[in-house]
Amino acid sequence: MNNQEIYEKLQASDAIRSGHFQLTSGRHSDTYIQCARVLEHPTLTLDLAREMVARLPEGLNPDVVAAPAVGGIIIGFAVALALDVPFLFSERQNGVMVFRRAFEVSRGARVLVVEDVVTTGGSVNEVVQLVEAADAEVVGVTALINRGGPKAFSRPFYPLLSLEVASWDFADCHLCADGVELYSPGSRRLK
């Protein structure tokens, strides 16, 4: 599957949306990537996960896949299935990302962190910190979509597709100034 085919599948599933959005990062944008519209199709999800795995460098060999809730759960599970390795996810408890539900990362494990859409990389970095706190190794980060711009990851980043989508601080948002209704479709409630 090439990048154009991936983009067309995103469009066909109505995953690329236009409007005025508050992203999970808190930034505003006129474009939102709603991966849930892609991930509601199991066969397509597994096809995309297999493509993500095929594009990983040879020798990466993760022992486990970890993903942040909520957005990373489905694609993280699909990537783990494609790799035939265990899967776990982190979630927020009192505003802090933690592993719950008896999930544990074994000391020395090689972990691939998976996310659906990465804008700033904040949630991914929180998962990386959790894994490293367990004395495990993050061998890389992958995502369905990189919304563009540099990421401050301490590990290599292998997005399936990169899209240059503008985002800005709410204080600089021309859509707010124009009174355009704001939507917050992300997985975290923002103020």
Write the layout of secondary structure elements.
Elements: H1 3-12, E1 16-22, E2 28-33, H2 36-39, H3 42-54, E3 64-68, H4 72-83, E4 87-93, E5 96-99, E6 110-118, H5 122-133, E7 137-146, E8 157-162, H6 174-177
Helix pairs in contact: 3-4
In summary, what is this structure?
With 191 residues, this protein is of the alpha/beta class.
Describe this structure in words.
- With 191 residues, the protein is an alpha/beta fold.
- It has one domain: Rossmann fold (3-Layer(aba) Sandwich).
- Helix content is 29%, strand content 28%.
- The chain has helices at residues 3-12, 36-39, 42-54, 72-83, 122-133, 174-177, and strands at residues 16-22, 28-33, 64-68, 87-93, 96-99, 110-118, 137-146, 157-162.
- The strands form two sheets. The chain has a six-stranded mixed β-sheet with strand order 5-4-3-6-7-8, sandwiched between helices.
- Helix 3 crosses helix 4 (72-83).
- It is globular and about 50 Å long.
- The mean pLDDT is 90.
